[in-house]
């Protein structure tokens, strides 16, 4: 059967994008081929806002067929954090049928080579990009993200991260040539001559274990890094956030088939309620790579038990902002207020602990006491979220009842500096929308440590009073070392304090944002430029996206012969 | 204190070598800056044969001081496999003193940057290279390698592997720029501008656990990969092979101090008899990287238990040669005879199982039965090793009593095709020198599998009779998958068989040498061109040397500020 998409055409179409991506991961300047603006879609074969919404609506209340081998049942029970049941059923796999089918797909995909694989991956991403509006609704109604964030973070930003992974995968595979002629002089005798061929080979089946809050953004790096290095990818979505990854699998299978490859290179593993299929899959001998985003407990379990696989984990952490001093007090407050509010603090990068000297800080608006800082920050949050419609568009909905329970319990953990407010979503009255709570804790009291050194995922921050900035720096060090951190923020006008903060982040391996007062927030990273996490502290054993994230997903097999 | 070696001078001196190495790992053509010929040494500050021998002799029978912090005792008991006791005592570490001293050395080494670190590493290698003759005696009298092999494999080839590791470390650290200006357009509003700085940071202390047979060759890749990426390296040599690595540590400490860095960036951890210090060190929280060569049992223990560290292991494997057919029968026999004999089969790359169809093979010298092949191979080995002096120069000495015991037991495992011969070393009558044994086994008998699927390290090969070449290919697959393999060799004139062998090696991830009949042997690999192992089967979880071997020894910490 002739492929509808030839390798030549795919390479011709996507090589310029790949080349620009290759250049950008070297310069780390700004670049993205995926538009952020909702109105950028609707032409050139891309779905408009209305068409995207219609496409999403058409998925609801029915089976989502993928034509995978080994489907033994149908399962699904997603309920939108905004209220509606999605009513979609997905294929449940008989893994003894599905895994062998995926393995059988390997040789042709491996033999296609790195460039063809990259081009096929870019075609998959291009088709996903064209359906960004459809994905936006899918992400919104599984993660609880507000629509605009679901469109941007779940769409172009996730696609960027996928492309970034393809780019690293490509460059790492082609750094060894396909063949070499080796000739070793032997003095007066004839040289020794060998012809050597080098083939990047995949490890085996890659398992992607998706998360509830960022199914595409956190899923695409591992998915595309594995696929681009030749591995079939089995996608096990979070049971509350199946749809965005099911759509992804469907697009990938379509493109693979059109390009003449076995669509079983990408498959979905939806699970029955309470089945815990991830544990079963993770220990299968065919599974050689695992990408996981989620709780520390299961991440640690995977690292300890899935010994046959390369395991890449992003787990829990405790993110800190050190507040020492600022020359832009209003900017600092506005920036922090936004960071704490965005998606109700349900980002792995949201600050949790604000370390503030109990004697206050210096600012361009004069000295501010600890309580004044909290009062002003609370006012900033209040102003940002004063209008319910605007607040809903920033906060989104709480993703699940656990987050709501943590939020409600937070008031009992200390004195409340800013209380959470119950917000009515203008369109979805059943959505649970809450503004963030800020709780005061005294860092010098030993019994508070067990509170603020625990990840409290959701819209809960702790304003930890410390004796001095030096104390804050040491607490930061201990927090990163013991609990991990995806992000560190700090505000200071002191060069010495900056240097001390940098040294802690170098030694404990955490990413540092200094004095952000404008439109960039500590919880946001940009593909091709920022690393997401460091891979060097307990919050994650890998960074998105770098050489270490891709280099061990394939191996190079050498065949040598006398020339 | 001003450094005697400035960064500028070191870079000027070594940058051309680094550039050539960078080019060579891309082309994988032949190159080495380290001469193989013994007579190449003696000028330009390098030790001649006589001076190298004198330098080695001067080390014997005394303390080997390294001026390390935290030396609480002196220990050592090396006995040359050639007979003499070395009588050298090494510092035994108080690790609660030594490890903090090593950690304290990190910041300045990190801040020096990738290029300075590479240049310092190249200076260390250059000084080691200049003392190649001294190292040759140290390797010979700890590993039992014959002098010429000790000089070449323990000298220039090991130095090449170290340089290769520095090269990969350098290129992977500089692929992210030191700084970037990021400017994201915001439509009609001002763009978002950030200044980003990227710093490669080390993981922590790296532990190198050396082996008995190739202390420098197997040790240098990990040592230099870790050091070049900013990590201090604690060298824990095999208790029978301390001297080559102690010399290495001494040279490294000298160069580091002269270049203005803390010499404690490289330190030795010699152990008391039976102390098992590797287990203690491997679990220390300061130890973040471990490189290990040795038994599967301890390698598996490290991987399972040293969870705080990145663990790179080379363990046991079972290497296979499939003998299907050849158009150069004499060449094949000569090549195999040499491979089986070199260093008494005490290489992790030596073939163990020769899979030969029981109905024989086709050759340019006519069809040969299974027994004829073994007879002719035995004759080839006999011819190669007929003269005791020449045999000693190829075989070296058995490295320890365990190898001798295995060799002596091998005769009871099956019918002996070629018996081992006791050889008298012309210079060292106490050396245990033995020619290899070849034992016949019937692959169709289930009880033989437990024999040939076990690594029998030393000069023991099994000639496994198989029903067909197809059976051999399947047995090869099972051997790699279940036991691992550092090398695979094969002889065939059939394109179909070549393709089947390649497919097995791609799928099970093993390095394949086809139809070697000349002066390159399956058990030899060349730095900058060949990979050593694949990192993808149970024999090793890493290959020497590739991007995956270095990429996770450092992380990149980003500091970003508004521009």
TrEMBL record, chains A, B:
Residues 94-479 form the Aldehyde dehydrogenase domain. One of its GO terms (molecular function) is L-glutamate gamma-semialdehyde dehydrogenase activity. Pfam families: Aldedh. It comes from the Bacteria. Coiled coil: none annotated. Gene3D superfamilies: Aldehyde Dehydrogenase, Chain A, domain 1 (3.40.605.10), Aldehyde Dehydrogenase, Chain A, domain 2 (3.40.309.10). One of its GO terms (biological process) is L-proline catabolic process to L-glutamate. The keyword NAD applies. InterPro entries: Ald_DH/histidinol_DH, Ald_DH_C, Ald_DH_N, Aldehyde_DH_dom, PaaN_2, Proline_metab_enzyme. One of its GO terms (cellular component) is cytoplasmic side of plasma membrane. Keywords: NAD, Oxidoreductase. This is Phenylacetic acid degradation protein PaaN. The gene is paaN.
